[in-house]
Amino acid sequence: SGGGVPVDMRRALDLYGRACDGDQFGGCNNFAMMYEHGEGTPLNMSKVVSFYQKSCCLGAYNACTSYGYMFEKGYGVARDLGKAVQLYEKGCSGGNAQGGSNMGGMY
Fold first, then answer.
1. Which of 76, 79, 73 has the alpha carbon at shortest distance from 53?
2. Measured distance CA(54)–CA(67) in Å, rounded
3. Residue 59: helix, strand or coil by DSSP?
4. I want to staple 39 with a disulfide (CB 3.0 to 4.6 A). Which of 21, 34, 55, 82 is the partner?
5. pLDDT in tens, 3-47
6. Cα–Cα dist 55/31, whole Å
7. How would you label 37-75 residue by residue, b for 16+ Cβ within 10 Å and e otherwise?
8. How far apart are CA 96 and CA 2, in angstroms?
9. pTM, whole model, 2 decimals?
10. Helices and strands (H, E) in the chain, number of each type
């Protein structure tokens, strides 16, 4: 967002990547989002899936919900509604209300 420094999406991508390499779940989640939206890098759904998965495994419940959405819609992965529900449940159980909402929409 350029809070106090000039906006530099490539620099942000690099820093989020370093944070993710250090197993910081917020960095992994933001890294995935940048690839998902093509910010500072070309869109890359395989990286999006990989980094949402890592972030979810590290405990970012909002990433579990995003990862579930990938399975619900078949973005970057084969569509798997059962896997989507499992990930939404994990997100919801961890306090991510969107996970509960997405899961409710599946029923």
1. 76
2. 10
3. coil
4. 34
5. 788 999 999 999 999 999 999 999 999 999 999 999 999 999 999
6. 10
7. eeebbeebeebbbbbbbbbbebebbbbbbbbbbbbbeee
8. 27
9. 0.90
10. 6, 0
